[in-house]
Design brief:
single chain, alpha/beta, ABC transporter transmembrane region fold, Rossmann fold, 6-stranded mixed sheet, 4-stranded antiparallel sheet, 17 helices, 12 strands, ABC_transporter-like_ATP-bd, ATP-binding
């Protein structure tokens, strides 16, 4: 019931369009129904060589009317129904984007990128087709059956009942029996398509690695295996569909034969004229037009409801709350006290009783091995992940009470994986400040030491970057990301492994640009490399979610703990003995 309530939420705003489309669909069926029946009457009367044209005049005019009106009603019905479907589709897509935006990338666990992409495309389309391919044909079929019953009853109740029995068997029992088998095939096909989508998206993003390790043949074999499985499933599905169509035609033919047997003793003796036989027979044929879409309607209901379940499952993941309000400029001290965090799928806490303070304009580094909780801590500080244990105060105000716009205004992030969008260089830099003038963009680009690189491009700041900015080196992408962060004027600059993909020379160039441009800002640097530790005001060492060491570089080196060992190892690997 909840699934249908969810569907009604999208359907209700368009109820008048739906009613109009259903009515037009019924009129289109009625026109076709009348066209076939009256055509039979016209042919029968013409075959008797009437003495005057008046005998066939009414059926002749009716055939013209039904023929023209059928096309008009069918076209108008398609226009109205697809207008509704596309309007509802746009609303569902907007809802899905907002749903994912509130949950990605941290809250949607257990779902692969290919699975989410499949939901965004195939499942949304399946919901759209629910009305066009399932609900509308079913509603028209019910109305059409009533029309057929009303038209055939005057020729004899047994004739009407025989037609109704044939319609029920062909339109209800046959699809119900076969749809069970096709549901299994459909479920298997959806899983295989989701896996195929996942493999293709992974290959596009990681083709360089696949090729570098010589795994092209293994990748193609896996893809061909899934393709063969999909082909087998599609062949079985198509075979069952052809079988259903054959059975439908058989039932239709048997029903017509039964009606003819019922008509035979009624001709003349019970008020059925010989010229009416063809008309009644074609009426029965036309009645089955309403039941013809029943098989695809049954199947579409199953596909659409499964899509609804998967879409609703995405919405069931916890939301990263968004607090409305205008952006405020907040700077000052940042105090973290007793902060703990535990992912639902993890047995041990990711952060455990973390406490520290960052003074205004200070530079603090958070170091530790992979999986020690560094990135999670940054995600909490920037509001991407919500905390429930402990306290984080910014200038005395609890971080959780700040509205989302203020959080985004306060923290500028340079992440480990910088994403550059396909578009102009200036637009990529101005991502957080779309209205920034070019002069300001050039200013921050110079501070980030990326200006000369941009000027060397064919069209300078108007050069269109390819997807993910592949024409830039790793160091250039990171410096462009730094310019993007500097443009926001955020008082806190948060950097998550910004040089993890850079060589030593580019790393040093990046940090020179960083320290020269970040004057007057509080800096929080998360890294497992020790390139600029001497310039940090404070260093936190995280291990298994807890702070195990803390102090300035010189003090931590004197302690001879994990930090000192890591620093010496880093220096040996970077500069040799």
């Amino acid at each position: 019931m909840q699934r249908w309530n969810w569907i009604l939420k999208w359907v209700a705003p368009f109820r008048w369009r739906i009613a109009l489309a259903a009515l037009l669909g019924f009129f289109a069926f009625g026109a076709n129904f009348g066209l076939l029946g009256v055509s039979g009457l016209l042919i029968s009367r013409t075959a008797l060589h009437p003495l005057t044209i008046l005998v066939v005049y009414v059926p002749l005019v009716a055939v013209r009317f039904f023929g023209l009106s059928r096309a008009a009603f069918r076209y108008t019905e398609r226009l109205v129904s697809h207008d509704f479907a596309l309007r509802s589709l746009s609303r569902i897509r907007v809802w899905l984007f907002e749903t994912l935006e509130q949950r990605l990338p941290f809250q949607v666990t257990g779902r692969t990128f290919g699975d989410i992409l499949s939901a965004a495309v195939q499942d949304v389309d399946a919901v759209q087709f629910l009305y066009i391919r399932a609900l509308a044909p079913t509603l028209v079929a019910v109305l059409a059956t009533c029309l057929a019953l009303a038209v055939l009853v005057p020729f004899g109740i047994p004739i009407a009942l025989t037609t109704i029995v044939g319609l029920v068997v062909a339109g209800l029992l046959l699809p119900f029996v076969l749809i069970r088998y096709r549901q299994v095939l459909g479920r298997r096909a959806r899983e295989d398509r989701a896996k195929t989508t996942e493999i293709l998206t992974d290959s596009v993003r990681g083709w360089r690695e696949i090729k570098a390790f010589g795994q092209e043949s293994a990748f193609f074999e896996r893809l061909m295996s899934l393709g063969q499985a999909l082909r087998t499933t599609d062949i079985r599905s198509l075979a069952s569909q052809r079988f259903a169509q054959s059975m439908f035609l058989l039932i239709q033919g048997l029903t017509v034969c039964a009606v003819l047997l019922e008509l035979k003793p009624r001709v003349d003796s019970r008020g059925v004229l010989p010229v009416d036989v063809a008309m009644v027979t074609l009426f029965v044929f036309a009645a089955f037009e309403a039941a013809a879409p029943s098989f695809s309607a049954f199947e579409q209901v199953g596909v659409s409801l499964a899509g609804v379940d998967r879409l609703r499952a995405l919405a069931s993941f916890p939301v990263t709350p968004s607090i409305p309000g205008e952006a405020q400029y907040v700077s000052g001290n940042l105090a973290v006290k007793g902060l703990s965090f535990h992912y639902a799928e993890s047995e041990s806490p990711t952060l455990d009783d973390v406490s520290f303070e960052v003074g205004h304009n200070q530079k603090i580094a958070i170091v530790g091995q992979s999986g020690s909780g560094k990135t999670t801590l940054l995600n909490i500080l920037t509001g991407l992940v919500q905390y429930s244990e402990g306290s984080i105060r910014l200038n005395g105000v609890e971080l959780a009470s700040l509205n989302t716009a203020t959080l985004r205004r306060t923290f500028a992030v340079v992440s480990q994986q910088t994403h550059l969008f396909r578009g102009r260089v200036r637009d990529n830099i101005a991502l957080g400040c779309p209205d920034a003038p070019l002069a300001r963009i050039v200013e921050v680009a110079k501070l980030a030491r990326i200006h000369d690189t941009i000027e060397a491009m064919p069209e300078g700041y108007d050069t269109v970057l390819s997807e993910r900015g592949n024409q830039l080196s790793g160091g250039e992408r990171q410096r462009l990301a730094l310019a993007r962060a500097l443009l926001t004027d955020a008082p806190f600059l948060v950097l998550d492994e910004p040089t993890s993909h850079l060589d030593l020379e580019n790393e040093q160039a990046f940090y020179r640009g960083l320290f020269a441009s970040a004057l007057g800002r509080t800096m929080i640097l998360v890294t497992h490399r020790f390139a600029v530790m001497e310039q940090m005001d404070d260093i936190l060492v995280l291990k298994r979610g807890r702070i195990v060491e803390r102090g300035r570089h010189i003090d931590l080196m004197r302690q001879g703990g994990w930090y000192a060992r890591g620093y010496r190892q880093y220096m040996r690997m970077s500069y040799g003995d």
